Amino acid sequence: MQIKYPEIGICGLSCRLCPMYNTDAKSKCDGCKSENRIAVGCPFITCAIKKKGIEFCWDCEQNETCEKWMKHRNAGKKVDSFKCYQKLEADIAFIQKNGVNEFEKLQKMREKALKKMLQEFNEGRSKSYYCIVATILEIGELKEALTKARKDSKGLEIKDISKVFHLILDELADRNNYYLKLRK
Description:
The protein is mostly helical. It is 55% helix and 0% strand. The chain contains eight helices and no strands. The protein has helices at 35-40, 43-52, 67-76, 88-98, 100-121, 127-136, 139-152, 158-176. It is elongated. The mean pLDDT is 94.
């Protein structure tokens, strides 16, 4: 089968905003539907791609009654793994209403903001945090935070630049009741 969206997980997660996708290390993942991941498999890859020949769980005839997908979605409402699941339900609803193409456009904007965060504000310890930020904040909020951080951190060293950006993001999170940590 032809995979059209390798950076959108079968279950609805955005690979573009995952720490494993945004690394140069040997452990780099090229997306849930990349050749390597399909070879290794996960329950969703096995069921959707290998058995049913579909790219997404929501395209399955049994998507509303699938215990495996429902369990994954319910767990995602409470906990995260190495990737932030906080927006999973909202993302699935967005895709079902607007289509995968529109979701992909938004994820590319989020990825662009994430790459800027990593290039300009990462002191070497903030990648996972910035991946969560890129997942949770609205696009406009991401752009505003980046602009303010650039202005407020001119002339500082990278550790202080990162601190300034963290403060801006944490204040934004407090104001809007965002949770910028993995839920374990």
